[in-house]
Each structure stands twice: as structure tokens, then as C-alpha cells.
């Protein structure tokens, strides 16, 4: 019972995937991070899942990741696991922002 309303564009799929991965990394202590960083990952993940349902909002989520985590990455003084994850999240935002829809996106 699929309809055209349930078809996602590539940015929406990437946003949903990034949100679910952030939720997973925030929930499980995969990298041995600071507990406060887990809260940030959970928040970013929940926001990604919520933003994945509309194409334009999914693009804005990518821009938000790119700008916010990109600014954090450029303000690095030392290289830590958290700083690596900030760079990774900014790159995910760049991919979401630049991904082609793959079909005519709904208005």
C-alpha cells in the first residue's frame, strides 16, 4: 500500500539515515565519548528523524549540520574523538545539502 506520498528524495533518505545513525551513536557508547556529547548526538539524531519527512526541511537540516558543526570544526585547538565526529557531521551536512533529489521533489 505504497503511494507517491511516501516516496522519499535522496536528501530525505540521507537525513533519515544520518538521524538514525546519530541516535544509535548517541544511545550506545561506541567511541567512549564524554556523556554530554551523547546528549548532543541524541538531539541531532532526533532532529534528523523529524526533519526527514519533507524535502525542503531535510535540506535545511543539512545546511544546519554543515554550518553548526563546521564552525565547531574550524574552532578546533586539538584533535580528539569529539573533534573528528564534528568534522564527520559537518561533511554529512554537506552531502545532504548537495545531494540531487533523484526525481521531481514535491512542492
Secondary structure topology:
Elements: H1 10-27, H2 35-51, H3 55-74, H4 81-98
Helix pairs in contact: 1-2, 1-4, 3-4
How would you explain this protein's 3D organization?
- 68% of the residues lie in helices and 0% in strands.
- The chain is mainly α and 107 residues long.
- The chain has one domain.
- Helix 1 packs antiparallel against helix 2 (35-51), helix 1 runs antiparallel to helix 4 and helix 3 packs antiparallel against helix 4 (81-98).
- It is globular.
- The two termini are 23 Å apart.
- The relative contact order is 0.19.
Defining key terms:
107 residues, 4 helices, mainly alpha
How much helical structure, as a percent, in the residues? Answer: 55-70%
Give the N-terminus to C-terminus distance in angstroms.
Answer: 23 Å
**Poorly predicted runs of 5 or more residues:** none
Structural class: mainly alpha
| Morphology call | globular
Average of the residue pLDDT scores: 87
Largest sheet: none
Number of helices in the DSSP assignment: 4
Q: Give helix and strand order, one letter per element, not per position.
A: HHHH
Beta-strand percent range: under 5%
Radius of gyration: 15 Å
| Total domain units | 1
Tally of strands: 0
Amino acid at each position: 500500500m505504497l503511494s507517491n506520498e511516501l516516496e522519499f528524495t535522496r536528501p530525505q533518505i540521507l537525513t533519515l539515515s544520518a538521524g538514525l545513525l546519530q541516535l544509535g551513536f548517541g544511545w550506545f557508547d561506541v567511541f567512549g565519548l564524554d556523556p554530554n556529547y551523547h546528549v548532543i548526538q541524541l538531539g541531532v539524531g532526533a532532529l534528523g528523524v523529524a526533519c526527514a519527512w519533507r524535502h525542503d526541511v531535510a535540506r535545511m537540516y543539512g545546511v544546519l549540520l554543515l554550518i553548526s558543526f563546521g564552525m565547531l570544526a574550524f574552532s578546533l585547538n586539538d584533535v580528539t574523538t569529539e573533534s573528528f565526529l564534528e568534522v564527520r557531521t559537518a561533511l554529512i551536512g554537506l552531502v545532504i545539502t548537495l545531494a540531487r533529489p533523484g526525481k521531481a521533489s514535491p512542492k
